[in-house]
Amino acid sequence: MIKTFRDLEVYNESYSLMILAHKLAKTLPVYERNDLASQIRRASKSCPANIAEGWAKRRFEKEFKHHLDSAIGSANEMEVHIETARDLGYLQENFSNDILVRYQKLGGKLRNLQRNWKTY
User: Within 57-92, where are the H helices?
Assistant: First the structure.
């Protein structure tokens, strides 16, 4: 049974990815720490934060879906940042591809939650 946002699979996956993204940001070159690393940290935090805030407002369909839209947008943004880091040679291709797949799956699960939110 789902009692809090912490019981949602999408929250747990987005939180896990956020921790991974923060560790990844620490490995970027110094000159990227105030640019790409900062963007990675912000976008990765936005996803679980919007899920949590949306869950608190789930009584209001429009508000809940708005926060899930924001979480999906942040997941998509993370795909771009991961691809950028990979293509600039900061990440190994296998590692970045694994993270990309996880963010793509997360986006799909968030869309499913948007469609079926009344069942939760």
Answer: 61-87
